[in-house]
Design a protein that fits this description.
By secondary structure, the protein is α/β, with parallel strands linked by helices. The chain has two domains: 28-284, Rossmann fold (3-Layer(aba) Sandwich); 332-406, no CATH class. The chain has helices at residues 3-19, 36-39, 47-55, 64-77, 109-122, 153-173, 193-208, 216-221, 270-284, 338-341, 361-372, 396-406; strands spanning 32-34, 58-62, 99-103, 128-131, 178-182, 212-214, 230-231, 234-235, 376-377, 382-383. It has a six-stranded parallel beta sheet, with helices on both faces. Strands 7-8 form a two-stranded antiparallel ribbon. It has a two-stranded antiparallel sheet with strand order 9-10. The chain is elongated, with a radius of gyration of 24 Å.
């Protein structure tokens, strides 16, 4: 093999490593469920998807349990070097600096939902948005929960409809963002019909409507040996996962911690959730989808936003259960069509595969897919758009034209 060809192939591999962590997000059309089975997938995430995931800009609105999750992400990322529990688990490649955690301003089922709406409107430059309820929103004994007190089926259905209606409208309004749907975490040493019913409704809806569901309730329910823990027949947090279990074994509050008790297994409660979080972000970045990512998010310093206080969600509330239509997904523009982008394709021979007037990593992604699939890329889709020298084939000569123009 000629030295020049070897250099070109090595250039392809180097560009693959540097520029492949680029992606454009769209709403999923098939459900992605992150649950206790996802925890064991953490060590299987390829390094390229760890890097992709770390470059996503995520805004997460939370309360105290979210603080424990953030602490666990710091543990995995190497930010707690003096903590003996974290030392064998830390790796700086798990960089979470683009994932911003902010606190809820409002409480209750509808109040926390309003925080998400306000935060998205005030901070539009993130890739991923999500908010998490606390176990308080699932307690049967609080009137501000998602079900009324005592538990009321009609109130549960109404507030669940408000929840999915709000989430669907956000997805429709921001089709290039990803919204994560979270189940309600459980308390311990008790059962709550509210949390169990809300989570059951949410799981069914997410799976049948192609949502991205982070099932924290499921993760906290399954013991390290894979057996589902229940309390009087209902799902409940496995007590050893909770920080409070060691000092107050009869209480009901549950904030996931490290392995405070041997029954919690090697990771305890919070590391399990943090590992599942990484799997979630890797899947958003494309792990397992077979789709080549395009359009890089800028890896810039991120300021800490605040959620604007809003008394209720700005989306119309449905008083009674009703059928919510599936959100309309944004249409996909076929790369290489000059009329779709509004730019004449004057740079085509220089490597502008999608004819947007800019030569960048998006064009490389098109070249790569067509090069590996004999000119036909079904995942984007495109066909022969990376034939920059117009010789009827996609080869390394076309790559060289793109590389030289990239500078």
């Amino acid at each position: 093999m000629k030295l020049k060809n070897i250099i070109i192939i090595l250039s392809v591999l180097i560009v693959e490593f540097i520029l492949w962590p680029d992606l454009k997000l769209t709403q999923a059309q098939t459900a992605i469920v992150i649950d206790h089975n996802s925890v064991n997938q953490f060590n299987q995430i390829p390094d390229r998807y760890v890097l992709l995931a770390s470059r996503l800009k995520s805004l997460f609105i939370h309360a105290s349990i979210g603080g424990q999750i953030h602490y666990a992400l710091r543990c995995l990322g190497g930010d707690l070097p003096s903590n003996p529990f974290c030392q064998p688990r830390s790796n700086p490649k798990y960089n979470y600096n683009q994932w911003i955690f902010i606190s809820h301003n409002n409480g209750g089922c509808l109040g926390k939902l309003s925080d998400l709406v306000a935060a998205v409107q005030a901070n539009p430059n993130y890739d991923v948005y999500h908010q998490k309820y606390c176990y308080f929103e699932g307690l049967d004994t609080l009137n501000s929960n998602c079900c009324g007190s005592p538990y009321n089926q009609a109130i549960t259905e109404s507030r669940f409809q408000t929840f999915i209606q709000t989430m669907n409208e956000l997805e429709q309004r921001y089709p290039d963002k990803r919204f994560i749907w979270w189940t309600i975490p459980y308390a311990r040493n008790r059962y709550d019909v509210c949390a169990n019913r809300f989570n059951s409704l949410l799981r069914d809806y997410a799976k049948s409507h192609g949502k991205l569901l982070f099932d924290i309730a499921d993760i906290e329910t399954y013991r390290p040996d894979g057996i589902r823990y229940t309390y009087q027949g209902y799902e409940s947090a496995y007590p050893p996962y909770c920080l409070e279990q060691k000092t107050n074994p009869n209480g009901y509050s549950c904030h996931p911690g490290f392995a405070e008790l041997p029954e919690a297994g090697p990771d305890g409660g919070s590391i399990r959730i943090a590992k599942a979080w990484w799997v979630m972000m890797a899947k958003i970045a494309g792990w397992g989808s077979g789709v080549i990512p395009t359009n890089p998010p800028a890896a810039t310093a991120t300021t800490f936003p605040t959620a604007t206080r809003t008394p209720t969600p700005s989306i119309t509330r449905t008083p009674t259960p009703s059928r919510t239509p599936t959100p309309t997904l944004s249409s996909q523009i076929t790369p290489g069509n000059p009329t779709a982008t509004g730019h004449p394709c004057t740079l085509k021979t220089q490597g502008d595969a999608n004819c947007d007037g800019v030569i960048n990593s998006q064009d490389y992604a098109i070249f790569r897919c067509e090069y590996l699939n004999k000119g036909q890329c079904s995942s984007l889709p495109s066909a022969m758009t990376a034939d920059f020298n117009q010789d009827g084939k996609i080869d390394l000569v076309d790559f060289e034209a793109w590389r030289k123009s990239l500078g």
